[in-house]
Amino acid sequence: MQFKQKISTLGLLLPFMLIPSSVMASSSQFNFEGKWQCEPTEVTDPNEESWVMYDFRDDGTVMSEEWVRYQSEKKTQLEFKLFIDYRFELKGNDYVLKPLALTREIISDPHNIDPFNYDQRRDLTGYRIFFKPTLKGDEKAQFDMWYHITPEDHFSMQCEKQERISIVLR
Asked: Which of 13, 40, 86, 135 is the most exposed place for a label (fewest CB within 10 A)?
């Protein structure tokens, strides 16, 4: 079954599909802090839907929530959320995200694929994600991204800065 083969490599491919962020290499005025909602620029698999929310913090960490759903014949084959904490830093002329911790929530897994076994979680947290953002207006950006093990293979995410909602307790 092609779907099971595809999912068996998910632990290696997921970082390639999902991890964008926001920095403009050519401008030190780009403001990272805050939440950015991102979606892939190109859809390579019509059976896949995904988005990522990044929360850049002033302490050099980034908290992400990533959602992915695979469907076949209008039925969900796998749906999950990943929550990844990153360290965010500048390396040379590029910015890098280094995974620190990963948790996951399986929403639907009717075939019991379990794409996040111990080996795949270990592999996922071993990646380094490099990126260069391009600001497109005040609240929008495109993130050109690549992984340290495949620096020639870039992918892009369209991102939009989100409003922070403050709750005042009295």
From this structure: 13
Q: What is the pLDDT of residues 47-97, one digit of tens each?
A: 999 999 999 898 989 999 999 999 999 999 999 999 999 998 888 888 889
Q: How many domains does the chain have?
A: 1
The verdict on residue 168 lying in a domain is: no
CA distances from 19 to 10, 13, 33, 82 (A): 14, 11, 17, 11
Q: What is the CATH number of the domain that holds 84?
A: 2.40.128
> Which phi and psi angles does 152 have, rounded to 5°?
-80, -15
Residue 45 maps to a domain: yes
Closest CA to 7 of 48, 40, 37: 48
* Residues of the domain holding 61: 2-162
Per-residue confidence (pLDDT) for residue 49, from 0 to 100: 94
